[in-house]
Structures are given as structure tokens and as C-alpha cells.
Structure prediction request, 107 residues.
Amino acid sequence: ESSLRAMRNEMMEEHNVVAVIGLGGKIKGGAGVEKEIKIARKHKLPVFLVGSVGGYTEKETTKLHENNEWNKINDAGSELNEMFRSNLNYRKIFAQMDQYIKRKEDK
Prediction:
């Protein structure tokens, strides 16, 4: 567990990470995706969760949707996050995310 935590921290600290994308993950037993979200937010990185693949990310995006709490993972707004939650056109949602990141970098 400590080596995984160290690896996750190193990836986000020492590389040019601009966002974290969560896909699936275990629902029970402390999902690795959950831990990666916490580390990413500690580093002020936006997180995008693909809920349409199931697993932990489906559960978490449903909760964020129901409570309108997308701001807990990023500041992209509900439209883009809703696409990640339910859209199966992954090419389209990743293109939208790429545009979001480029706009943030231009600021």
C-alpha cells in the first residue's frame, strides 16, 4: 500500500500532469481511484470521472450528480461532467476535456 501511495504521489508531483481521469475501479475495499482523486485534489489537479464504465466512478459520479457537487473534483461545470458521467462517446468527451484543459492553460 505504501509503495502504491508513493507511486501515485510521484506521478502527480514529478510529471507534467494537467488532469486525472478515473475509470471504473473497485467499489468495495478502498478503491484506488478514490485514493488517486484525493491525491490529485491535494495537488489542485482537476479530476474527470468516466461514470459510464461502471465501478467506483459510476457510483461517485451518481453521487456528485445527485448533490450537484461537481466542484469537488474540478471547475469544468456540470455540462462537461455530465458527459463524463453518462456519455458513451469517449472520443467526444475526451476532446471536450482537452479543450477545457487548453483553455485553462491559456489563462
Notes: The chain has a mean pLDDT of 88. Residues 17 and 82 are 23 Å apart (CA to CA). The radius of gyration is 13 Å. The longest strand covers residues 20-23.
